[in-house]
Specification:
alpha+beta; 3 domains; six-stranded antiparallel beta sheet; 8 helices; disordered C terminus
Amino acid sequence: MAYFNHAFRKCYVLNQDVVSTAGTATSALAAGQMALVDTSFESVVNTAWGTLSGQFVLAAGSYHTVDTIGNNPGHGGYSESVKSKGINPKYISRVWKTPVCAATAATAEVALASDCVPCGSSIFLRMDVKGSPALRFLNHNAYAIGDSANVCCVDGQDYIDPAAALAEAGKQLLADPILAPFVREKSGGGVEITRTGLAAVVAPLGALVVGSGYTDGTYTSVPVSGGTGSGLTLDLTVSGGAVVATPTIACPGQGYTVSDVLTILVPGGTAGTPSTINVATVADTASYTIAEVQGSGYVESTDPVTDGVSAKLQVEGAYVDTQFGNCSFDTRDHYEKEPVQIILSNLDETGEPCNDCGVASRTTGVMAQISGETVLRDLLMSERYMQMPYNQGNADSSRIREIEHSDDIVSAVDRSGRYVSLNLLHSVPRFNNPSGVFDNDQYLYTFYAVAGSAGETALDTLFGQIAALASVDAVLDTTDACGSPCTI
């Protein structure tokens, strides 16, 4: 690495704690344990040292449970702890943390006002699906067009309820066989309706009478009776013959009044004491599923202008990539790093973009970082640098991996998990370098730990101490990849 201006990288995965008992032998480090070691490479340094004037070494227990291959002493040393170069604090150039970033689905919406759909006309919505998932699945981006041609007016009606028009167009788009694997209506309801006097039931609900005599189980979209409105359904759980805790709203219905007492029509069994719930809050804006708008959950307005009706169709990305298990894992397997992107737009009857009525907007999705798939590939690359390659692509690769204990490495990482990384970059100066070119060998050490685990807490403490050394001209960088600060 002497004549290259990049850093040699070594990765560790911490599944346990940081060993801080001074004098502990490095051979005693268990798989997934980490420690600060003196430059004799033999003894653990107490992590409460405060300041450090000399060199130290970062070491971690090996994930190889067997020290040799095939009990051949000529191929040994696999279970020896994995160590860094000697690190001189004054040559540490950077210490930073990359915490986990939560995944967010791409979203898109189209909003229509009360007078956007005159009777005798239709709206046309175009949905485009773009990005790596679409290109891999189809070899091209995809789109479909939905319309509201199946929505009709009654005699004397001037405008179609925009909620009904959007629900019909959205239903067609989501039923398209090409787009269906990539998109779904927004969780909690894909049609948001605002209407004067809508009086939809919203959380929190009021007092609950749990009732008795029901059949235990979990029930969804349970109807209610009573009150001034219609269409409300609830999701609930029955245990011991009674409704457990406060139900959640499935469909908000409309036309209800605060203090309405509603009887919950729980299916199964004969209630000894009926379960009831009070309406505590109603609102003029609520979200419905497309099926609820087109069913009994919402009553269309025949005069949306007077009723002040406006609506939004909301969809979100929902693509799930294929993933293979550990026994057939191959580092060349694709794993998605880019979320699907969705664009909704309003068209006129000629197919051209239409901005006269209706507003379209979208948000881009974000993939969760750091994934276990990334961690495993980084760890296997470190193994290759140590002359322990991961055998793959051959008919007998699974057998070779068993012989070489590569499966120990694969099983050490939760591929579906999310990890944080703490990183240390330092250099080893070359004081005798006549050319004067690239006279510092750089080394980067990356420690991964499951987000929220005890390992993350231990690494936060240890790397915070390293960065705080008086002789280190570096500050622990806590700006994560999502653009917001994290704390250590």
